[in-house]
User: Which sequence fits this backbone?
């Protein structure tokens, strides 16, 4: 009997869904992509590299700090280590972290658009960032920088004989990349929302990134001109900030901190947005006080511009100006506190579950509280006199930056990983890593509060012997922290190959990216324009997870 | 009547926008956001200027006396005229008159060149007089050219700010020339812009007007007061 | 074709040329006024007196003219106008706080009633810049009850 071969049609579930990662395999389609999702993935890869590099420097100087004397590094090499740690972590990891990766990926989807308002500018932003990265690597290769990430004059302009010029240019160019990102976000949120998506139906992640965009636009140009002046002064020898030539270093600090204080809000606000979304999802509850959180994001963005002088209380700034800055700094804590209360209230009465993103989110709330409250210590002028430039300051900003922002970044990456990659990460490893990060972080930085209170100055490579125990605790914690981050990176990359395929909505979450878009999304996000009819976070408590 | 084949025959709307209005509004916002950050960029320089001015008012007044305000005033008029020609070029692009568009675009760039040309002579006078901070700062030369500074050390600060501020302004104009040259090519050879596509020309105009605004503040602050 | 009518609905207003000419004349007049106020008149208070404020006010007026007519902000939507004017407001904030520092007495925090340590707060030495003689420090005796004891 002759066998007639029938045409083989694959079963429905095996038909490949052509998503944004596989719709075009050529190198050119990645390098010249205008797809915000691909740009986000490229940003993610790049900032991870800088995170690891900055973390490496931290490991090196924490090793040095295990002993009271100078054992491992010459003092000027030590200076280079902490400077590069700061420069890379702040300009090349924290500032772009959530906006350029999660923001780029999710903002258009969350507002129901097919792309950001200016896709080519988005692409330009990425390549400008890469250029900045090369300049930073050039500074590194040329011997590094030792002025501290704050580039205080006249050390950076006159006395340092390290690669200040390249490092300054790297920060300048990276700032420009962030300006273009912020520009895109603001225009997109204003003009490209889907029908029915009013401002108060937007996810709070969008509000947070919008506020961040505003800060980026208004603050970054000032540091651009400041850094330009430093580089120019170094190159030509003129004395804008040099007292010997009539200049004033305090002016540099005014100009520098006018950006760098709002910069810390650039770094934390998107984290707030992530936490809002994650807390709502994993308590299956509406966000308590949605409008308050939305407006508090805007309040932080605006008030954050009025407080920069609290970095300069002992710099020679006028006492009266310091008073004003101190007063307003106490105010700027209020919107953040409002958020913390609202998130905690969101948990109440909800159907709470503790997946990895939720662990990070809960950790964020606790650690950010500690960091924020210790900021109040520093903002009162009297207390700042003994605490300025001690490890208290270092611990404070690491609590908010790492305990806050990096935890929020990990939270967001884990939460949206199924959406971005179509794979689930291993949940047990995720939970383990989250707990280890929390433990390691506290072990690293809590002793530093005590050290700062006792008077240990920052940026010193030697210290009196009686402080060695605390320093060893801190270094041990740093090792644990570093290991846990590496573990997370390893299993996240591993999940790309061996992870379980993710369903469209593994967390049972609300939002356009979960309810309408597939995992991973199509190249143009939506087949037809979504029409939004329900409020944000319209959880009923009965949503089922699909993990 | 508009000229034939000047720009696309129909408005082009990018795929991610839903209609022309959304595209235009979004682009307007984008361009003004860019200009807003340029305001903050130059503003930083002005902040430094006002800061030192408050510290050393007599020195600043003395130093600005050696800047010829008549040349500065002439340059102001030149730049203002170039703003008029730029706005007129936008008008003729919107109404579809190609010859006038080209004429006014080229005159804008030409007037800009005039501005820089005059500035070159101003700066050359300072170079000859030994008043370039640190690179060629020679008090003997200054006295020889009639520039007797009240306080040479702080005067050098004033001139540092002067050259950086006017230099940054001139640099922005040179960038403008670059973009303008591209536009001249696109308008002359490819007739890229017309009544259905004029936003790039309009935004170039916004950039040019912004450069004019910076000069509107630079001129009194550096030359007059 | 004169698409003005439909264009206006889409927000594309074509500004008449006459307005440009008038605007330019106004700005020129204002410029001459500035020159006169600064150089032609002898105002009391010298440099930081009324002359400065008048010059600044005129410059702001000229900017408003350029922005509203040449840049078309007068005919833009409220949203664009907010962005156009917002940056200037922000600049004012920067100026206000920075100038408040330089204009108020610079009482150094934590330095009142404290004997300056040799060399550390030696302003004169600082002002000499690079190339000055290096300072020789003497190790101070730790005080009773301090941590170093």
Assistant:
């Amino acid at each position: 009997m002759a066998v007639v071969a029938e045409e083989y049609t694959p079963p429905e579930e095996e038909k490949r869904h052509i998503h944004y990662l596989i719709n075009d395999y050529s190198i050119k389609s990645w390098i010249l992509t205008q797809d915000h999702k691909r740009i986000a993935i490229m940003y993610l890869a790049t900032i991870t590299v800088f995170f690891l590099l900055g973390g490496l420097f931290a490991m090196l100087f924490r090793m040095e700090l295990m002993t009271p004397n100078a054992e491992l590094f010459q003092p000027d090499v030590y200076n280079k280590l902490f400077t590069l740690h700061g420069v890379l972590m702040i300009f090349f990891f924290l500032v772009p972290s959530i906006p350029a990766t999660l923001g780029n990926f999710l903002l258009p989807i969350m507002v129901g658009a097919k792309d950001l308002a200016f896709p080519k500018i988005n692409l330009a932003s990425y390549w400008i960032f890469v250029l900045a990265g090369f300049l930073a690597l050039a500074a590194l290769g040329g011997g590094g920088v030792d002025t501290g990430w704050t580039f205080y004059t006249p050390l950076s302009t006159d006395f340092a004989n390290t690669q200040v010029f390249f490092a300054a240019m790297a920060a300048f160019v990276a700032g420009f990349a962030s300006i273009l990102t912020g520009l895109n976000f603001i225009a997109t949120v204003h003009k490209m929302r889907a029908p029915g998506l009013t401002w108060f139906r937007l996810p709070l992640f969008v509000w947070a990134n919008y506020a961040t965009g505003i800060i980026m636009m208004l603050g970054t140009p000032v540091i651009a001109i400041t850094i330009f002046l430093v580089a120019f002064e170094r190159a030509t020898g003129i004395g804008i900030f040099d007292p010997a030539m009539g200049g004033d270093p305090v002016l540099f600090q005014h100009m520098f901190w006018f950006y760098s204080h709002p910069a810390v809000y650039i770094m934390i606000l998107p984290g707030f947005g992530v936490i809002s979304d994650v807390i709502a999802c994993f308590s299956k509850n509406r966000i308590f006080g949605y409008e308050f959180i939305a407006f508090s994001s805007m309040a932080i963005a605006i008030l954050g511009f009025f407080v920069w002088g609290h970095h300069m209380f002992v710099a020679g700034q006028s006492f009266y100006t310091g008073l004003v800055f101190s007063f307003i700094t106490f105010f700027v804590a209020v919107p953040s506190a409002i958020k913390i209360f609202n998130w905690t209230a969101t948990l109440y009465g909800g159907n709470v579950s503790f997946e990895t993103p939720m662990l990070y989110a809960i950790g964020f709330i606790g650690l950010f509280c500690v960091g924020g409250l210790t900021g109040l210590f520093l903002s009162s002028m009297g207390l700042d006199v003994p605490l300025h430039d001690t490890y208290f300051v270092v611990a404070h900003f690491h609590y908010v930056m790492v305990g806050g922002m990096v935890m929020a970044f990990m939270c967001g990456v884990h939460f949206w990983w199924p959406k971005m990659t179509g794979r689930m990460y291993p949940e047990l490893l995720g939970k383990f890593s989250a707990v280890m990060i929390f433990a390691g972080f506290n072990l690293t930085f809590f002793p530093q509060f005590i050290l700062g209170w006792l008077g240990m100055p920052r940026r010193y490579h030697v210290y009196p012997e009686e402080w060695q125990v605390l320093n060893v605790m801190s270094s041990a914690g740093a090792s644990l922290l570093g290991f846990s981050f590496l573990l997370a990176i390893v299993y996240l990359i591993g999940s790309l190959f061996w992870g379980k395929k993710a369903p469209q909505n593994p967390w049972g979450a609300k939002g356009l990216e979960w309810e309408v878009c597939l995992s991973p999304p199509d190249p143009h996000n939506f087949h037809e324009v979504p029409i939004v009819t329900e409020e944000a976070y319209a959880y009923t408590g009965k949503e089922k997870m699909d993990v | 009547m508009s000229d034939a084949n000047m720009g696309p025959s129909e408005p082009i709307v990018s795929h991610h926008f839903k209609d022309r209005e959304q595209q235009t509004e979004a682009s307007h916002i984008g361009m003004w956001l860019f200009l807003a950050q340029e305001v903050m960029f130059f503003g930083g320089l002005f902040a430094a200027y006002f800061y030192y001015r408050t510290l050393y008012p007599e020195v600043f007044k003395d130093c600005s006396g050696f800047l010829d305000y008549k040349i500065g005033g002439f340059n102001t008029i030149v730049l203002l005229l170039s703003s008029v020609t730029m706005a007129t070029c936008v008008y003729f692009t919107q109404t579809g008159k190609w010859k006038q568009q080209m004429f006014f675009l080229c005159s804008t760039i030409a007037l800009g060149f005039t501005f820089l040309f005059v500035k070159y002579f101003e700066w050359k006078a300072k170079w000859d007089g030994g008043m370039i901070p640190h690179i060629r700062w020679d008090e003997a030369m200054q006295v020889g050219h009639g520039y007797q500074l009240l306080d040479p050390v702080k005067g050098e600060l004033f001139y540092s700010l002067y050259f950086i501020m006017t230099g940054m302004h001139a640099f922005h104009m040179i960038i403008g020339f670059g973009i303008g040259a591209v536009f001249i090519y696109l308008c002359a050879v490819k007739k890229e812009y017309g009544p259905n596509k004029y936003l790039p020309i309009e935004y170039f105009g916004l950039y040019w007007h912004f450069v004019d605004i910076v000069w509107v503040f630079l001129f009194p602050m550096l030359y007059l007061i | 074709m004169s698409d003005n009518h439909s264009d206006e609905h889409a927000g594309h207003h074509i500004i008449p040329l006459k307005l440009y000419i008038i605007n330019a004349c106004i700005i020129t007049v204002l410029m001459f006024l500035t020159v006169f106020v600064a150089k032609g008149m002898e105002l009391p208070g010298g440099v930081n007196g009324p002359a400065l404020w008048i010059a600044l006010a005129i410059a702001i007026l000229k900017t408003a003219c350029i922005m509203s007519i040449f840049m078309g902000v007068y005919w833009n939507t409220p949203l664009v106008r907010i962005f156009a004017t917002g940056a200037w407001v922000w600049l004012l904030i920067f100026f206000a706080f920075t100038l408040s520092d330089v204009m108020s007495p610079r009482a150094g925090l934590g330095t009142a009633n404290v004997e300056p340590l040799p060399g550390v707060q030696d302003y004169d030495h600082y002002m000499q810049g690079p190339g000055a003689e290096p300072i020789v420090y003497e190790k101070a005796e730790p005080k009773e009850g301090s941590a170093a004891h």
Notes: The longest helix of chain C spans residues 78-103. DSSP finds five helices and no strands in chain C. The CA atoms of residues 5 and 13 of chain C lie 9 Å apart. The two ends of chain C are 91 Å apart (CA to CA).
